[in-house]
Amino acid sequence: MAPLSGLTRVTRLFEHPIVQAPMAGGGSNPALAAAVGDAGGLGFLAAGYKTPAAMHEEIKQLRARTGRPFGVNLFLPQPPAADPAAVGAYAERLAGEAARYRTPLGETDHETDQSSDDGYDAKLAILLDDPVPIVSFTFGCPSRTAVDALAEAGTVTVVTVTSAAEARAAREAGADAVCVQGVEAGGHQGTHHDDPEADGEGAGLLPLLAEVRESVPLPVIAAGGLMRGEAIAAVLAAGACAAQLGTAFLPCPESGAHPLHKRALTDPLFVRTELTRAFTGRPARGLVNRFIREHGPYAPAAYPQIHHMTSGLRKAAAAAGDPQGMNLWAGQGHRLARTMPAADLVGVLAAELAAARAPAGC
Ligand SMILES: Cc1cc2nc3c(=O)[nH]c(=O)nc-3n(C[C@H](O)[C@H](O)[C@H](O)COP(=O)(O)O)c2cc1C
Fold it and tell me: What residue ranges line ligand 1, CB within 6 angstroms?
């Protein structure tokens, strides 16, 4: 039998070209991924910030809920580039937050535990030992050795890219597909190298999609600001084989996002989003709140140090019912968020997509 093309290896994993984005920090979980998969989309688990054992446990829980294909997303380890002086200066600036929420800032020296590299090697070893249908990567490009080993295990590999150069790196590493992430996207930009000089330079999804398609002959999953079936039709028309949606799935009852986060997406109090390093030290798009306004302008490029530093503050703000001190990750389409069970949302998106693709009546 002829080997399957890269495109077929990806598209046979779903009935509808709708991928529920991995959302580290609690948004995605086995309940959400199972509901999406059972409805004919493709669900994802996020391994970021989790221990390897916790990632494996979620995989087992998901398998107990559904026999449908699903994916797991990994963060690439980050270079220890952060300037300790800049991290220290930011800690001083956050002293008022620590007092406000009566919570000490988190330790930033995590070199001796798995938090700085996020347990990448151990997670990869688990995924090779107990393979899943699809693995996606963000914050960098996996090695050719890792991609080949996953392929050998029967796993489809996807690399998140935010430029044509990153897409070429993914192709050189042997990835099956790329997830093209436009600057509209909620959460972290999956840029391979965090370069403060390039802040504000991210490309919008449609131009980026065209550039990547003209640079590499790989199947493309499009992500960033997609909230309706009509928008999914638009990226399919632009050459994508599927659309990956994060913000749209956040308000679903199955999503593990904090209730304050879910509510804020359509709260008229939050009028816009911004890319900020304020919470984690790496650019991520969130609803602009007090914390971003006050600390975004001078937050250093220091991931994951700043993530660890602010983690307790964010939890304390959530516990105090204060969305002004939390990271409310959201894409530019957040006002279009709809609250309904994930299976219903996949159904509605699929119906909108079908209607948008049907020949016009005039
Ligand atoms: C709350 C949240 C958490 C996210 N966490 C991850 C993650 O762990 N891994 C990842 O590759 N992308 C993550 N993303 C980005 C998504 O994969 C995707 O690029 C983005 O959600 C698309 O934009 P949209 O939110 O406008 O749909 C996250 C996005 C959000 C909103």
Answer: 21-25, 27, 46, 48, 73, 138, 160, 181, 184-187, 190, 223-226, 244-248, 329, 331, 333
Tell me the best of 18, 19, 23 to mutate to test the pocket of ligand 1, counting ligand atoms within 8 Å of each CB and taking the most. 23
CA 5 vs CA 12, 180, 218, 219: distances in Å: 11, 19, 10, 10
Take atom 13 of ligand 1 and give the residue whose Cα is closest: 23
CATH number of domain containing 245: 3.20.20.70
Tell me which long-range contacts 124-128 makes (C-beta under 8 A, separation of at least 24): 124/74, 124/149, 125/52, 126/52, 126/55, 126/56, 127/72, 127/74, 127/153, 127/155, 128/153
Does residue 25 lie in a domain region? yes
Ligand 1 atom 17, closest CA: 21
CA–CA distance, 224 with 272 (Å, rounded to integer): 15
Range of the domain at 21: 6-78+117-250+338-355
> Is the residue at 30 inside a domain?
yes
Residue nearest to atom 3 of ligand 1 (CA): 23
Number of domains in the chain: 1
Per DSSP, 17 falls in state S
**Site to substitute for ligand 1 among 188, 249, 326, 327, most atoms within 8 A of C-beta:** 188
pLDDT digit of tens for each residue in the chain (362 aa)?
677 788 999 999 999 999 999 999 989 999 999 999 999 999 999 999 999 999 999 999 999 999 999 999 999 998 876 789 999 999 999 999 999 999 999 988 654 343 457 899 999 999 999 999 999 999 999 999 999 999 999 999 999 999 999 999 999 999 999 999 999 999 999 999 998 888 767 899 999 999 999 999 999 999 999 999 999 999 999 999 999 999 999 999 999 999 999 999 999 999 999 999 999 999 999 999 999 999 999 999 999 999 999 999 999 999 999 999 999 999 999 999 999 999 999 999 999 999 999 877 66
Atom 21 of ligand 1, residue of closest alpha carbon: 246
> Does 171 map to a domain?
yes
Distance CA 159, CA 173 (A): 10
Q: Is residue 321 part of a domain?
A: no
